[in-house]
Amino acid sequence: MLVAFAASGGAQVQRPTLRGQVQDTARVDTVQFSPPDSVMAALLQKPGYTVTRYEGGVVTFDATVKAFAIAAAAANRAMVERQGQRVVTDSGGSIIYNDQTRNVAVTGQSFRIVPGEGQPPIAGVGTASYNLQERSGRLTNATVTTPDEQGQQWYVRSEIGKMFVGDSARSVPMRFYGLGGTLTSCEDSIPDYHFRMREVKRTDRTLVARPAVLYIKDIPVMWLPFVFQDIRPGRRSGILPPRFGASDIVRNNPNYRRHIENIGYYWAFSDYVDMTAWMNWRSSAGRDSLDRGWWEANAEWKYNWLSRFLSGRLASSYMKEGTGNSRYAVSWDHSQRLGRNRNFTTGINYTSSTQLQRRNTFNPYQAMATIASQAALSDKIGPFSLQLGASQTQYPGRSQIERTLPTFSITSTPISPGDWLVWTPSFRFTEQASLRIDQPTTFRNRYIGDNTGQLVRVDSLRSDKFNRQINFDSPIRIFGMNFSNNLSIRDAFNDYPEEKIFYPNAQESAKQTRVFQNTFRTDVDWNPMFSLPSLGQNRFKLTPSISLQNVDPGPFWVRTELSGGRFVHQSKRLTYGLSAAPTVYGMWPGFGPFTRFRHAVNPTISYSYAPAKRVSNDYLEALGVKEQGYLGALAQNAISFGLSQNIEAKVRGPADSTQDGQGGQKLKILSMNFTPIGYDFERARVVGRRLAGLTTENMGTTLSSDLLPGFDFSMNYSLFQGSTLSDTAEFAPFLTSISSSMRFSQQENPFTVITRLFGRAVPDQSPSPQQDPNQGTQADAMARQYASQPVAGQASRGSQFLVPPTQGWNASFMFSTSRSRPPKGDRVIDYDPDVRCEPFRLLDPFAYESCKASPSLVNPFEPTTAGAPAVRMPSQTSLASQLQFQLTKKWSASWNTSYDFEQSQFASQIASLQRDLHDWRAIFAFTRSPNGNFAFNFFIALKPQPDLKFDYSRATVRSR
């Protein structure tokens, strides 16, 4: 038995809209009188009379008392109408109308009273007495249909009822009083649930009943002191319905923490602007390191001026824990059109403490989601499109911030004074910053001593890095010849101490080791290229080209901390190239469901030659490279080869009777792509080893097929230990990554594909290779959804584990393994997941386990030059799966899990079960971490009134 307060408050919290969009959802009576004859039509048009109309099978008139007895025929109804008020009874019933008293007595199996236009009808069974002049009556077993602000129909059934229709001309509101009865939103004749009430009152604004007992079928499950429902349509100010249950009033165990939400008020200032303010509170009695208790103040302002093309929301919150720690959060979503082609949008989220933000949320996905912000301004001026934006990312429980401020780009549509000249310029400027990097560097702390050398204190060093990039591209096509001219500037600054090995004057004998307080690098590069029109466009696609390339793959101008901050440059040389991209294919006759097969091979072959050129020692010194063993200045006599191939089959269409049938779809049997491999003959000759001619350091391949829906496979190798620009590089292939994904469902799996191909009738459409690679898996879409959740406002509240309705079943699997080649030497920094996830350990064990199971493999420390310590990234091998299926028509389930092969354990388990109860929704959710921590959540809510709910959540923390 549960004790709770009102099911709904008085505030109607909806998004602001334009005036005139609120619709009347009241039901209207559809029973009409028979068409009148010419005499009756003439009488109805007589002025100065009040018309009383009646109709039935048998009408008896008593002239003494001026009363009509109207009996319904066997297949008809009886009804009477006066001044817009209508009383209707079904077959077998009767209506007695007294013209002197204007009283109507109704009997029958069912009757209906329609008070007037815009008023909901009142239905009943048995007897009723209604006065058309006083607009009031007494009914037995009456039913009143009441729509709420969401358009949901509520049915009030009263054993004895009394109604007053009211009069809008005299400002008399409509009222209905009932003794005994039920309240439900279920339309069935025997409702699945109902509230049993002792008294009920309905006005034109509100519906109030007291007391109320909730029955599921005929079982009582909840007692409410009263039920209050605001039935006015539209938006208006009012008190928000608080959210709490019986266990928040009477604790069921000593460890339970009271929790109350949504104590506040809603203001509807106009049809375009509203505001909401509310408080949340969690008890701090018996607090511990995981649950410290807190109070939170929230405010949200929404606006929507469609006539000004402006809409958005601004929300803020302030939270203070029982220990005194506090945080504030701001969310601002704004969209505005400033002109025909000018648009401004923001999605700003910021919190002053990611630890408190993550620790006190009840949504496990939100606890792990990044806190992302972005702002963008777009415009178009003539042929130019302008983009100005900024973004910032915070991580829950971490101090690190990724910021991009600003990004500015100008792109142009092709500018062409004629067919002989096409110019497409573009410009881009980006500045990025990584602040408070939380991964340890070589120098993690600063030791402060006094004059005597005694240690006074130890300070943690802050690590930041900044990157600035400028790109200007100016491709021009003149008479079919392409000339590209690219200018790029990159400036990097690493603001943390770093130890490096460098070679003064690029000499190995002068090798030194030094600690730099910070490091920097500025690159300026200019790469012009000229290519002639393709030769043999339809066959070999031969394309000659001439380019002015750098001798070293690095930039033309560069300055670093190793050059003392001065710019040094290298040389350029003309490079002559010839490339070919033919397509070779063969056609074979088909069999069975296939009309034919097509095997296409797409090789890409290119040859380049460049004369030898010297690279200055100053340039090599600035990059931290030694002259001995350097191969970048050799003449270039290289060839590159890439390959991709596709095997496709044409599926026989329904109308195909021969192999020449048309209309069948294409099915991709197998698609393979390989990374191009380069080989330099001059480099192999100088080094004296054939393998030294390989210039490709990494090679990979990808596979996909439509026979396995959603199947993708990729594999990558590192071919060399060391850089191929040095003669010390060793050919030692090393597997760096494997990733594969596969998706199955009742409609898409290998068996349904095969049965469709061989003509068996199965649901859904025939297989099609047209898959959008940008859509991603369902897990990716869910991850993007949770990563974009706001940190303040009503949208930031923790949601339940909702299983989306599915037809049949669907499952997705993703396997991935990645590892870095072990670096040589003893100057190695380990990227330790334990250090990165340490902030989670004491604050949130669930987040700690998830963080360790999914470490980021992005190196946060990119050295500006060679000679910096190598970073050893942790290996990761995992299998993730997501399964959704329907147990029955009403039961659906979901199971997400991932297994970590490196730690030989399941990294996470999330299982949820949902039951559709016609008028209710019940959800069971269970999560478990590898160390034994688990959480259980049970949630059941009424669909038409979600505030009427029971929510039980239990978390248990266990140590290893």
Give an account of the 3D structure.
- The chain is mainly beta and 960 residues long.
- Among the domains are: 235 residues, Lipopolysaccharide (LPS) transport protein A like domain (lipopolysaccharide transport protein A fold, Sandwich); 190 residues, no CATH class.
- The chain has ten helices and 57 strands.
- Strand 24 and strand 25 form a beta hairpin.
- The radius of gyration is 38 Å and the shape is elongated.
- The protein starts with a strand and ends with a strand.
In the predicted model, the low-confidence regions spanning at least 5 consecutive residues are: 1-28, 656-662, 760-786, 798-805, 853-857
Global geometry: elongated
What is the strand content? over 45%
**CA-CA gap between termini:** 38 Å
CATH class of the domain at 2-236: Mainly Beta
Rg from Cα:
38 Å
Give average pLDDT, whole number. Answer: 77
CATH topology of the domain at 2-236: lipopolysaccharide transport protein A fold
CATH superfamily name of the domain at 2-236?
Lipopolysaccharide (LPS) transport protein A like domain
Task: Give a count of the beta strands, DSSP E runs of length 2 or more.
Answer: 57
Helix content: under 10%
